[in-house]
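Extended Data, panel c. Modelled sequence:
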Amino acid sequence: MILTVRKFKCRNDNCKRKVFTEQNDNILPYARRTDRVTRLLSDIAIEMSTGTGRMLSEKLLINVSRSTLTRLAHQQIIPQIKKLKVVGVDDWAFRKGVNYGTVLVDMETSKPIDLLPTRNSEDLKAWLRTHPEIETITRDRASSYSSAIDCICPNTIQIADRFHLLMNLSDALDIFFKSISPEISKLFIDKTTETLSDTEGIAQQNSTTNKTMKMPDSPKKPDSRQEIFNKVKELQSQGLSRRKIGRDLGISRNTVRLYFELDVLIPKSHTKQTNIEMFSNYIISKIKTDGYTSIEIINDIRKMRYTGGNTQAYDYISFLKKTNESTALSYVEQRRKPIPYVKRLSSRKLAKYIGLSLSHIEDADERNYMQVLFENMPLLTRVRTLVRQFKAMLKTGEGQVQEWIKSIENSKDKRTGLKTFARGLNGISKRFRMESNLIGAMDLLKVMLIE
């Protein structure tokens, strides 16, 4: 782009600059792009990562590097924070598992307003001193945040958000399932033993059947010469000459002469005979057992001195499956079939699935596992009802919180973790002197503040 500008000379002898160039409002001095392009790239740098922004800028025919986009992002003017009423406090990771800071969010606009370098209470205290107008703070369960808020603004309402309340419930359920892990293990050991006993009975029945079963005949492939032989004999009976028969059928006169002399076609003699029929009983016993594949059977009989090739063995195994009507599942089919009483679930997954409907569990093995638990452990059915009630109260903002707490505290069941969770909620409800019949979701969250 070529821009023509005017130049001016200064008539003041005391001025250090003698020549002045006309300036353009859209182009800064020494700039390599217009102000409009800079604003566009600045928006791209803020809205997306530098890698994605670089690719988008290429599509817009503005080739810039990732470093340029980073510099433009750092040059942005941070907007002034307006008067705050409701603020969210949570931690965030500079580097996950290594270095964490604190993020502060304006809950009315759902936008971050500041980042603190650490999760220490001193940094949060210093920030709160500059914003005494805050009325409500939503936070996680970190004790450093609680102490900082109580120290600087004790009259501020502290609220545990729904996410962290559900996390607290999940932690309580995790402790609960770990406490009843021996009972779950015993249940599934008994179920596995029961399943294995049934399997052994079926295997013994198959073994008895195999002993009385007659070994099937070896499969015989049709001889491709038989059709030509029948045609030659038919034309021979009509009195045609060997030359004409050979020419019409596309075979040599020597073959025609040989077929003229034979009444029945002699089978071919194989130079290499195999001993596949010796292993028929073994193959039948394997194809009637779930989980065996053809290649595994072939490897086994090869160790028993089978001398043939894989193709013949595959054909013979397929023949035996058809003649013996085998209904056993192959390895692939067995993997697709739900296997009950085998796969153990962690306490975290049990905490996740306890409040869900079985139809919402996608994995068939995990669905069967939860179904066995509900059918054999009535305690889990009662816990499942409590979890669903708590989630419904969080969702609707209505419910009998005190009744829910009492049902856990007064229960004679083993509910380790859940009783601790209920006691924490009960202490907070007494502190705020809230009524048990809640009206709004905000009141519900106030009662369920996590200390």
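The mean pLDDT is 78. This feature is highlighted in the accompanying rendering.
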